[in-house]
C-alpha cells in the first residue's frame, strides 16, 4: 500500500523533536507493508513577517528537516508576506486559496497515480486536511484526516463550516481522544466516519530506570528530596504561566523539593523569575532519550494544561513508572486513565492541583499499575489500529 502523508507536525531545524509522534509512527509503517512519502508543508516568511513575529514575540515559521531518525520528509514551502497573513486572518475564502497554493506546489513533486490514499495530520494555519481534500477530489483518491488537539479546540470554531465539510467528506477521520471527537461533534461534525486512536510511545526509550541512579547521573541527586516536573512547551495553553505558583505551593508543604522543567517557550523567562529561590532546573528542549531520563528522575509529573488533544507525555511518563497528575481538560483524563490523578478545572485550580501533588508525594502510588496501563500504547499497537483504517478505506485485505 502506498500513502502520501501530508503533515503539519514535523521535525524542524531548531527543534527536531517537533512532531516526534509522526516520526515514530512512520518508523513502524514498513512493518505493516505500507510505503509512504511524507510532505511537510510550511511557510517561507518575508523579512517583514519575520520582523512582525519578532516584535509580537511569536515563533517564526521554521524550516522543516528533510530527515530525522532515518525518516525522510519532503519540505514544500510557499512564500508568505504581510498581505497573506492579514488576509488569512480576516477572509474565510483566503484559507482555501492558501491550500490551493500548497496543492500546486505539491503536485510538482509527486505522481499521484502511485498512491492508494492520502493521509493528512492536522489542520492548522497550514491546512493539511484541506490540502488532502483538494488533492483527493482531483485525483479520485480516498483521504484520511487525523486531528491532534489545537486544530479542533482553537481553530475549528473560527472556520467551522470549512472544517466540518473536510471532515464529513473524508473517508475516515482519526481523533487522538474521545474528548477531541466530542468537541468536533459539538461544532457540527456528525462523527459518522470517526475513529479514536491515541498517540503512542517508544518502548525502547521510555522504560523504568532506578530513580536514585538516574538522578545521580543527571547531577541532581539530593538525599531525602522529592522531585516534581513538567515536560512540554512553555506556553499559556499548557498553563505554564502558573507553574511558578503551583511549585511554590508544593514547596510550602514539602520544603525538601526539587523541580524539573523539560522544554522551552516564550514563558521561560517569566517562570525563571517566579521560581527564584526554589531548587529547580530548566533543561531546555532535549532528545527523547534524555527526556526519558528526566521523567524517571521525577516522583510526579504535572500536566495542568488548559486544553490538550491527548497528552502523549502522560503515557511516556507512565511507561517510565512515574505518576502523572493532570487537569480535567481535553484528552488528559483519557491519557491518565485513573480518576484519582485528575484535578477538575474550576475555582482555585492551582491550590487544588498543588494539594493533590503533595498528597501523592506523601502517600505514594503503585508503579506497576502505571507500567501495566502504558503497555497498550506502544507504537506497534497504535500503528496497527491505524493501518486497519487504511485497509478499510482502500478495501485491501
Automatic annotation (TrEMBL):
Domain Glycosyltransferase subfamily 4-like N-terminal: 97-202
InterPro entries assigned: Glyco_trans_4-like_N, Glycosyltransferase_grp1
Gene3D superfamilies on file: Glycogen Phosphorylase B (3.40.50.2000)
Alphabetic keyword roster: Transferase
GO molecular function: glycosyltransferase activity
Keyword Transferase attached: yes
Source species: Thermotoga neapolitana (strain ATCC 49049 / DSM 4359 / NBRC 107923 / NS-E)
Name the UniProt record assigns to this protein: Glycosyl transferase group 1
Classification via Pfam families: Glyco_trans_1_4, Glyco_transf_4
Family annotation (SUPFAM superfamilies): UDP-Glycosyltransferase/glycogen phosphorylase
Domain of life: Bacteria
